[in-house]
Task: inverse folding
């Protein structure tokens, strides 16, 4: 190999760097685990692992006061997951170019390192492309959509149309004191208030406090801001709420309180509130982000078995009918724990159920990189066995002497 | 320090190890001491009856022991200067409630909880139901209020109130025969029934569950103090059960014997004996003592293995399903590895480590068993024997190996720093041992973690979720990789390896226990959970060893004096 | 201060900011003004879930349990300590003399608790207490069981039963829980406020009893000009149209059934025989086409029979639809050539049909 290249690669591919990177990875993961106590897992994953740099405040390691603001303590920066991952990749490749000739002796290590590269790449792909959504279905009904409970969207539906009948605004646009106007929207939407997480309470008939909005469910319900969810809180999802004021051509259409907390007539889909615009009705709602599917899933039977005399679940299973006319698919499938359905690149898991066992909640995961970990495992396992097998035989031969 | 046969061994030296082995067998075949009970009643037979409680079919003996353990912290009861066995206690609870209400079974430590019952001045730790009865309404009212507080934010007092409320509830349910599904299913596919349900069925004209009459007679006979009637009804019921549920009867009998024999407790004792023998061997007469110690460890591992396999048979699950069984299994894994190492290196260090680790893990397991049934049923997501047998077992072996490496590191440091026995050869050999175990640890922890990822992908579509438990596992893999890469890069020699391996103990303990305590120990000033306390003590001890190990080599006794040839 | 933000959503940049979907039709959609449900759905077993005969505000910590499938037990809660809870059941019985009788019910419960029955209502004062519910008759019942052991005579009883009887508009409702005295005594307040929160939403207004009853889906359609409505009402048919062309004639009619109509194979063979076709053994042997009526999709069979001795053949078009529990049949039967010519019109007619669900609440 060219000497000049060697000189560049030497420091980059040195084992010292590997050890330092490993130590940094240990520290990063350790800090991220503590940070989860206050933030949600997804927030931590985004901040610590799907980033280049992260600032770690010291206060995550200290006892929390029962209430009140946390004092501002200093912290320290750490390389984030992407940066470390990239550094590992560079170090690994340099090391291989530098030191490892393609010999059978090194086959094991080569495979192990390739497996690690695959794992890192797989995680990066998952981080950027995977979509995880939930499909709640009542027993005896079917569903054609799934929702991502980590995000919300403001949806306006035109009940008179069959296609192109819903417009949804991404949660990133829902900032307080923002006016949303677009040719696709039938009216202008002003976001008066936006709460990331709230609870709902019924309004009593003689509630002295005025309703939070002038129309719709705001007259019967009110929302209260509550702290955002954390990685260890019981409720795993933020339920936002927004107070929106609608106008059309200068005319006010009223204000509405929208939140995914309240379900509509089937207890599954979010409640839609009617908005009258020049004699025509639109339906507005704030819901978890929906993904409409080209197929429908009909829940025939949901089973929630428990151990005798206990409330400990022994089995969850959903018997569903998968109907996909375009692909001539119409079959019964049983989905239960540790036994998913794989269809059209998506995987359907038995994730949860609706309270009272009236329905099931399937998790639909679309992860383009899902095979990579399996590939990595096989490769890694073979590599490990090969390498340590070689080492072990060498060792035993020597000890026998 | 291998012993060469440089002089003929005395007769005693040859016989001694065998004497020790004989002693072990005597100890192992000793029948277990059972508290005395009224011999006229066949309480033994009653204890072996299978029932369904908390989702699992088990003998009444287990129900009694586990319940008493949860309430009281022990499996027996002290009353009127006598020790009462768990099953006898349960019989009294079921048939003589007034008497049972006076048994001091509720353990209460927290002073504020004691004050609620007006018992703050009592020197005792355990109290009877009759002493608590007057203020139970307060207890439950408070428990209802505390239920609204999220569990991570409860302070010590609130936690103890909830615990006591739950314990009283369990006791009360047993008294009323609720939740105790005593009667076998009438038909295939049906469940075991409780006595009240069977009575209700009988009153409403439906067919009573099999055995209802017999069991009622049996319990009534005990209440009225009629041993013959009791024994007769009991044997009738036993015949009925053997006909209807032969497997359950068999397993229940085995489980009762298992409970009585307490193999892990006996194993504990033997491990201690082995450790003592090794210590003595360092003072002199090393050959026979070391051999004896090794044999004791081998015998104990057989016992350990039998205990594990019996649990597998009784629960129908792979060996590691919860924290308790993981502790037992880690001990087992480490001892097996040490036996292998001892055969390879023959310097008695592995034997010592086996004894120490076996003892430590079984003690930890013993304390983890205080939650009640160690073979409790598993929630649906864990209901997969395949993944339990592969991922969980492999990763637990990985944990064991990492702990073993850390222990070897500690021995290395102590030996090198405080004694002069770490010769050049021994130095090299211990280094090799360490290296070998670390490679083994990396292999198993890596494969185990990957298997866990695959399980997660099969279960909920996410190979890696970055949650605390998963993070803990990957930390162990990363740390083992770090130590080995440091060795390969020439950054660490034997001493460096030892120090890094000791840190591995901290990483593994964090992963095994620390991740469970996140958010729990942090939310209350002044009170630290017992488990958190011991974890911190352990971490401090390991840090101590690390600092000792970091002392420059020239101050080490083994390296400062001229090397001592073996 | 209003920030005019997000006007930049014009055009194709910010492709994630605003999205357009093709939302599939909601098969069970209703009129839009309906009551929002609370975050804790109290419905019993699945089914329509649209009409809840009873609503309540369950206290925090009461865990609702899966519907047991029992005809009378409406809901079960788990109350009390989380790891050793107690059942609380809500049962609904038809209003009969028995179920309405306070005496009968309380005596039954006294029996259950091991207490002596009472002879007349006046003695009930120690067990029952009326409770305020708007426009309803309701009672709270509290019965303490005797001590566990006959020898005991001290303070608190062993078991406590908290119950309530509520006279609903059509059913009699019972809320009941039995458990250890200390646990249930602590639940008294919550039990009472639970009972007080019970409401029976207004039931559907009764409609005049014509064949189109309020519980069934109705239909709207547009008749093609050359189809003449048959003034005679035929049995089992909603409406009949006649199409004529010279001597050729075909009838088109719509029928509707709730509940079972027999096995598909049986029906198909019956129809095939009507046009002179042989029967089939297996559904797979019969070709069907997809057809839509408004937003509903159904199947259509086109059965063309063989020529008879006079050289005439008949043809049968059947379109089948399901809306909830109702089955719809659209049939055109008659001269082969006429029906073949009218098939397009038939399909279009059906395409413009609208199934209308009645409004509830």
Result:
């Amino acid at each position: 190999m060219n000497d000049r290249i060697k000189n560049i690669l030497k420091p980059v591919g040195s084992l010292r760097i590997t050890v330092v990177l490993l130590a940094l990875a240990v520290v990063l993961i350790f800090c991220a685990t503590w940070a989860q106590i206050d933030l949600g897992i997804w927030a931590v994953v985004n901040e610590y692992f799907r980033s280049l740099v992260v600032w770690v405040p010291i206060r995550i390691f200290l006892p929390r006061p029962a209430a009140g603001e946390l004092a501002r303590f200093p912290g320290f920066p750490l390389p984030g997951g992407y940066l470390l991952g990239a550094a590992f990749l560079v170090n690994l490749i340099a090391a291989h170019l530098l030191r490892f000739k393609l010999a059978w002796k090194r086959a094991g290590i080569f495979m192990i390192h390739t497996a690690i590269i695959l794992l890192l790449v797989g995680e990066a792909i998952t981080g950027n492309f995977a979509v995880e959504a939930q499909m709640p279905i009542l027993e005896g009904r079917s569903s054609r959509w799934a929702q991502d409970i980590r995000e919300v969207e403001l949806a306006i539906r035109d009940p008179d149309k069959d296609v192109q009948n819903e417009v949804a605004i991404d949660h990133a646009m829902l900032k307080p004191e923002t006016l949303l106007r677009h040719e696709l929207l039938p009216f202008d939407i002003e976001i008066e208030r936006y709460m990331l997480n709230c609870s709902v309470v019924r309004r009593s008939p003689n509630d002295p406090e005025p309703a939070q909005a002038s129309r719709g469910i705001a007259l019967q319900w009110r929302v209260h801001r509550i702290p955002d969810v954390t990685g260890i809180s019981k409720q795993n999802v933020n339920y936002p709420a927004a107070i929106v004021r609608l106008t059309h051509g200068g005319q006010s259409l009223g204000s509405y309180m929208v939140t995914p907390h309240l379900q509509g007539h089937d207890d599954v889909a979010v409640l839609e509130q009617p908005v009258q615009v020049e004699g025509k009705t639109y339906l507005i709602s704030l819901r978890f982000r929906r993904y409409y599917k080209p197929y429908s899933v009909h829940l025939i039977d949901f089973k929630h078995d428990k151990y005798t005399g206990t409330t400990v679940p022994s089995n969850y299973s959903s018997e569903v009918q998968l109907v996909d006319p375009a692909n001539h698919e119409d079959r019964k499938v049983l989905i239960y724990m540790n036994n998913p359905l794989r269809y059209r690149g998506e995987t359907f898991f038995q994730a949860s159920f609706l309270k009272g066992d009236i329905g099931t909640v399937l998790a639909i995961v679309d992860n383009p990189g899902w095979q990579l970990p399996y590939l990595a495992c096989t490769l890694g396992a073979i590599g490990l066995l090969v390498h340590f097998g070689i080492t072990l035989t060498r060792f035993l031969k020597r000890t026998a002497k | 320090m291998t012993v060469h046969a440089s002089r003929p061994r005395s007769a005693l030296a040859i016989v001694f190890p065998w004497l020790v082995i004989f002693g072990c067998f005597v100890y192992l075949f000793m029948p277990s001491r059972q508290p005395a009970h009224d011999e006229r009643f066949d309480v033994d037979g009653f204890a072996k009856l299978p029932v369904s409680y908390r989702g699992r079919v088990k003998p009444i003996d287990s129900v009694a022991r586990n319940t008493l353990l949860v309430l009281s912290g022990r499996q027996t009861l002290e009353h009127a200067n006598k020790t009462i066995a768990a099953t006898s206690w349960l019989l009294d609870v079921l048939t003589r409630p007034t008497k049972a209400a006076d048994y001091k079974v509720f353990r209460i430590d927290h002073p504020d909880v004691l004050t609620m019952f007006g018992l703050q001045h009592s020197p005792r730790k355990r109290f009877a139901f009759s002493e608590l009865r007057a203020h139970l309404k307060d207890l439950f009212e408070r428990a209802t209020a505390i239920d609204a507080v999220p569990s991570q934010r409860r302070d010590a007092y609130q936690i103890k109130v909830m615990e006591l409320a739950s314990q009283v509830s369990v006791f009360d349910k047993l008294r009323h025969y609720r939740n105790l599904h005593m009667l076998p299913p009438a038909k295939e596919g049906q469940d075991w029934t409780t006595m009240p349900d069977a009575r209700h069925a009988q009153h409403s004209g439906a067919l009573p569950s099999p055995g209802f009459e017999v069991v009622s007679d049996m319990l009534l006979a005990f209440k009225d103090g009629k041993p013959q009637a009791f024994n007769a009804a009991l044997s009738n019921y036993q015949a009925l059960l053997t006909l209807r549920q032969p497997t359950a009867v068999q397993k229940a009998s085995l489980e009762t014997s298992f409970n009585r024999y307490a193999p892990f407790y006996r194993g504990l004792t033997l491990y201690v004996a082995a450790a003592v023998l090794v210590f003595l061997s360092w003072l002199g007469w090393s050959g026979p003592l070391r051999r004896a110690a090794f044999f004791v460890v081998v015998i104990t591992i057989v016992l350990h293995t039998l205990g594990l396999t019996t649990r597998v048979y009784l629960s129908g699950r792979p060996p590691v399903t919860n924290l308790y069984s993981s502790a037992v299994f880690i001990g087992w894994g480490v001892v097996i590895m040490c036996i292998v190492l001892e055969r390879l290196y023959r310097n008695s260090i592995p034997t010592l480590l086996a004894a120490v680790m076996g003892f430590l893990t079984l003690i930890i397991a013993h304390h983890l068993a205080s939650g009640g049934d160690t073979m409790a049923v598993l929630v649906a997501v864990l209901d997969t024997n395949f993944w339990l047998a592969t991922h969980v077992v492999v990763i637990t072996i990985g944990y064991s190996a990492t702990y073993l490496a850390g222990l070897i590191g500690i021995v290395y440091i102590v030996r090198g720093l405080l004694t002069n026995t770490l010769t050049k050869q021994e130095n090299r050999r211990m280094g090799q041992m360490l290296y070998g175990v670390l490679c083994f640890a990396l292999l198993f922890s890596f494969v185990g973690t990957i298997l866990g990822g695959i399980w997660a992908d099969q279960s909920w579509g996410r190979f890696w979720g970055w949650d605390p438990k998963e993070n803990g596992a990957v930390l162990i893999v990363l740390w083992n990789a770090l130590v080995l890469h440091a060795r390969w890069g020439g950054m660490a020699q034997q001493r460096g390896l030892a120090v890094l391996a000791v840190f591995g103990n901290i990483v593994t303990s964090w992963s095994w226990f620390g991740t469970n305590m996140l958010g729990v120990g942090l939310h209350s000033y002044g009170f630290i959970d017992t488990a958190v306390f011991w974890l911190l003590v352990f971490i401090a001890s390991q840090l101590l060893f690390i600092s000792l190990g970091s002392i420059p080599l020239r101050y080490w006794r083994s390296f400062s004096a001229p090397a001592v040839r073996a | 201060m209003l920030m005019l933000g997000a006007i930049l959503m014009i055009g194709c940049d910010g492709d994630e900011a605003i999205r357009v979907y093709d939302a599939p039709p909601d098969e069970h959609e209703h009129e839009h003004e309906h009551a929002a449900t609370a975050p804790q759905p109290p419905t019993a077993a699945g089914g329509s879930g649209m009409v809840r005969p009873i609503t309540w505000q369950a206290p925090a910590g009461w865990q609702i349990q899966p519907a047991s499938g029992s005809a009378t037990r409406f809901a079960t809660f788990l109350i009390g300590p989380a790891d050793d809870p107690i059942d609380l059941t809500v049962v609904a019985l038809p209003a009969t003399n028995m179920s309405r009788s306070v005496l009968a019910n309380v005596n039954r419960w006294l029996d259950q608790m091991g207490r002596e029955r009472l002879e007349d209502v006046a003695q009930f004062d120690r067990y029952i207490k009326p409770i305020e519910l708007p426009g309803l008759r309701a009672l709270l019942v509290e019965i303490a069981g005797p001590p566990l052991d006959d020898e005991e005579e001290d303070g608190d009883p062993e078991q406590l039963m908290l119950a309530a009887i509520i006279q609903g508009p059509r059913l009699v409702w019972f809320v009941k829980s039995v458990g250890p005295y200390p646990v249930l005594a602590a639940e008294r307040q919550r039990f009472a406020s639970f009972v007080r929160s019970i409401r029976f939403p207004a039931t559907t207004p009764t409609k005049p009893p014509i064949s189109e009853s309020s519980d069934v889906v109705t239909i709207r359609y547009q008749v093609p000009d050359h189809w003449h409505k048959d003034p005679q009402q035929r049995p089992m048919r909603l409406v009949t149209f006649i199409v004529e062309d010279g001597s050729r004639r075909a009838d088109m009619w719509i029928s509707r059934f709730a509940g079972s109509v027999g096995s598909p194979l049986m029906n198909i063979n019956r129809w095939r025989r009507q046009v002179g076709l042989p029967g089939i053994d297996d559904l797979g042997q019969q070709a069907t086409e997809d057809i839509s009526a408004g937003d509903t999709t159904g199947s259509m069979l086109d059965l063309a029979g063989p020529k008879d001795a006079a050289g005439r053949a008949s043809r049968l078009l059947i379109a089948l639809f399901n809306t909830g529990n109702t089955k719809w049949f659209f049939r055109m039967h008659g001269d082969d050539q006429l029906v073949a010519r009218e098939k397009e019109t038939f399909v279009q007619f059906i395409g413009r049909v609208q199934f209308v669900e009645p409004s509830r609440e």
About this structure: DSSP finds five helices and 17 strands in chain C. Chain C has a mean pLDDT of 74. The longest strand of chain C covers residues 248-258.
